[in-house]
Amino acid sequence: MKNKSSYIAIMMIAILFSLTLIGCGNKQDAQTADDEVATSLDKIKEANKIVLGTSADYPPYEFHKQIDGKDEIVGFDIEVAKEIAKDIGVELEIKDMDFDGLLAALDTGNVDFVVAGMSATEERKQSVDFSKEYYMEDSGLLVLTDNKDKYQSIADLEGLNIGAQKGTVQEEVAEEQIEGARIKSLAKVTDLVLELKNNKIDGLVLAIPVAEAYVSRHPDLILAPHIDLGQGDGIAVAIKKGNQELVDIINATIDRLMSDDTLDKFIQDATALSEE
Ligand code: ARG
């Protein structure tokens, strides 16, 4: 009897002890995570700048434009990035790179955030965190104006040479929806547009607003009127995983821009600028 109760007592002490240990372990983990988060935003504040990664070949989101004889990167994504920097209270530095290098740049800390018309896909959510979505994009097919009526349905595209930007959702759309297409994927949309103009590819899968921006500046190009590639995609800001404080601050900026129609104005202005 005595043995049994001391056995129970020992067991209870052991259980209590391990519970305490588990409790401590959790606390410590949370503590470290908190520290990392704090340093990340603190680092940005300390450096007095936040570094944006983008791919400025995507009007009206982000594109190069001569302004007063000077090459500048403009677009509605850039305006959103400026507002985020402003709300954090730091300068904005822009790094223009290939779209398919952006997530690696986030991972290595080469950039602090990515605003690049990036679709918040489930696959990308495995490796980065996203803000709330601030835009929706659909895809279409950019073709030579001469071929406007050549393609009456997706079936007419079978086996053709189709371009898409490397590492984008549009590359997947081309692969999945166009039977037997020979996909040409290049790092820059600008190079793909040249391929199309030079008849090296038959069509280019592109987000509709981007296709429209190129159409407005290239009369020999048009959005194929009968090709519906459907599939709307939510666009969001990407941040390195595990930095909730930064996600929260960015979401607050997006909320502000969406609630007072500022974002709509950014989009209208950028669209006008991309058509000039
Ligand atoms: N929304 C597409 C994606 O996330 C294409 C984005 C391309 N962006 C750019 N700046 N070129 O895959």
Structure write-up:
- By secondary structure, the protein is an alpha/beta fold.
- It folds into three domains: 1-38; 41-136 and 234-275, Periplasmic binding protein-like II (D-Maltodextrin-Binding Protein, domain 2, 3-Layer(aba) Sandwich), CATH 3.40.190.10; 139-223, D-Maltodextrin-Binding Protein, domain 2.
- 46% of the residues lie in helices and 23% in strands.
- It contains nine helices and 15 strands.
- It has helices spanning 2-47, 76-88, 102-108, 122-125, 169-177, 189-197, 208-217, 244-259, 262-275; strands at 49-54, 57-58, 62-67, 70-74, 91-96, 113-114, 128-130, 135-137, 139-144, 161-165, 182-186, 203-207, 221-223, 233-235, 238-240.
- The protein starts with a helix and ends with a helix.
- Residues 23-32 and 34-39 have low confidence and may be disordered.
- Bound molecules: arginine.
- Residues 55, 57-58, 61-62, 99, 116-119, 137, 165, 168-170, 189, 207, 233 line the site of arginine.
Secondary-structure blueprint of this entry?
Blueprint: H1 2-47, E1 49-54, E2 57-58, E3 62-67, E4 70-74, H2 76-88, E5 91-96, H3 102-108, E6 113-114, H4 122-125, E7 128-130, E8 135-137, E9 139-144, E10 161-165, H5 169-177, E11 182-186, H6 189-197, E12 203-207, H7 208-217, E13 221-223, E14 233-235, E15 238-240, H8 244-259, H9 262-275
Parallel strand pairs: 1-5, 1-6, 10-11, 10-12
Antiparallel strand pairs: 2-3, 3-4, 6-15, 7-15, 8-14, 9-12, 9-13
Helix pairs in contact: 2-8, 2-9
Bound molecules: arginine (ARG).
